[in-house]
Amino acid sequence: MRRIIHYGAAAVIIPIYGVQVCPFVEGLPAFSVIIPIVTLFAVQYLAGKLLWDSLVNKKPLNSQVRSAFRVELLLFLATGISLTIFNTVTFSFPLESGLKLIVGIAGLGFFAAIDIALQVERNVAATVLANHTEIEPEEDYFPITTRMVIFATISVLLIVGIFILLVIKDLDWLVKVGNDIPLADGRVSIIKEFLFVLSVTLPHTLNVIFSFARNIRSSFDAQNALLLQTTLGDYSGSIPVASADEFGVMAKHTNRMVDTIRERTEELGRTRDITIMSLASLAETRDNETGAHLLRTQRYVRALAKKLKDHPRFCDFLDIETIDLLFKSAPLHDIGKVGIPDAILLKPGKLTDDEFEIMKGHPAIGAEALAVAQKGLGPNSFLILASDISLTHHEKWDGSGYPAGLKGDEIPFSGRLMAVADVYDALISKRVYKPAFSHEKACKIIIEGKGTHFDPDIVDAFVAIEDEFCDIARQYGDENTN
């Protein structure tokens, strides 16, 4: 479509241009000027369709833009030379007249070739994006800054050259007509010629400038979008490497940078998760509980959080990222037990009042240990959640829990979730001081604690997904992890 527009515009502009700059063309009948030009541009268009198939479309993607520019510029030059030969043979035009026409046609061809090449550049980018491929940037690529400088220089030279041709022609014309026409009429005629040249060259120049800007903006938009995505912690994106110039190089290196950040982040995440589980398991080894308790409780917490993520009370903050952090923080809920003496922690019977007071200190011990980590690592949502879970998972909805006697929504959401998960798992698990309760009995105890021990909405969520709790308990049973 762009080729049709440029060829049609050239077929209209060149006859008028020829009349303006060449007295020999001006002296011909209109049909003798128009028909050869229109015919040659029609032939040029048809020849171009054949050449594009072999010289542009079948070329590798990284060379199609350059090939399109060359083909179009050569086609316009060929048309200008052909028109010059035709006029010389048919009307005995001097070489000077032919050169003027070649300059005009080549000038239009220059603007058309750049505009069409820039469109091909956009098409190549769309192809790369659609096919999930990429272009390998060339080491000796042609910088876009150099291209723009060359375009600006040639544009200025063409416009100045055409105006010089107009001035020469008008001076010859004024000498010939002498006093035969009024000076005012001559002035108006010259101004019209200059306005005609501006009306042709200015839109062509602006069109190419806007086309350049469109392509550059597309590259910058893709770059900025990926950088923003990466800044927000999503490392899954990439930029299509859709050009062989500096933007292709930038895209290639940006993609490598994001890949490296993703790999390093994943490695740090795995290291963090392994460290968490190791620390939590170390605490569990000192207790009567097993490592499977950690696996089960963190999955209970995730299941409850997913069920509640659309609840009006929790939907504002309970997103996918927070649910994942809750899942990874849950194993640290009893990390404070490392500070409890073995005589109390491992006692098979019921604790005395004094011993229970010491045991009640483990939430604060865990929170204090995590607070030390927070000071070293700075503000971190993961550590905040872990600290809240450690400190408040023994608090109760009615305020009768420990260590601070928090009540209702004073208890962090993470602590309320952990309370249900921890109590359920303790009920269904065998301990030296109690047998394992059935799922049905554990559910009954949880439901009885609604509004006293537990947040009522979390209990409702637990009841709604109790089958999922059963599946988790079965899959991660103590006998399956030994």
From TrEMBL:
Q: Which GO terms describe its molecular function?
A: phosphoric diester hydrolase activity
The UniProt keyword set, sorted, is: Membrane, Transmembrane, Transmembrane helix
**Xref: Gene3D superfamilies:** 6.10.340.10, Hypothetical protein af1432
Entry's Gene Ontology cellular component terms = membrane
InterPro entries linked to this entry: Cyclic_di-GMP/3'3'-cGAMP_PDE, HAMP_dom, HD/PDEase_dom, HD_GYP_dom, MASE10
| Domain HD-GYP: residue ranges | 268-478
Q: Which domain of life is it from?
A: Bacteria
Question: What's a GO biological-process term for it?
Answer: signal transduction
Indicate the transmembrane segments per the record: 28-52, 73-93, 99-118, 148-168, 188-210
Instruction: Tell me where in this chain the HAMP domain is found.
Output: 233-266
Q: Which Pfam families match?
A: HD_5 (PF13487), MASE10 (PF20970)
Which PANTHER family does this UniProt record tie to the protein? CYCLIC DI-GMP PHOSPHODIESTERASE TM_0186-RELATED (PTHR45228), CYCLIC DI-GMP PHOSPHODIESTERASE VC_1348-RELATED (PTHR45228:SF5)
The identity of this protein, by name, is: HD domain-containing protein
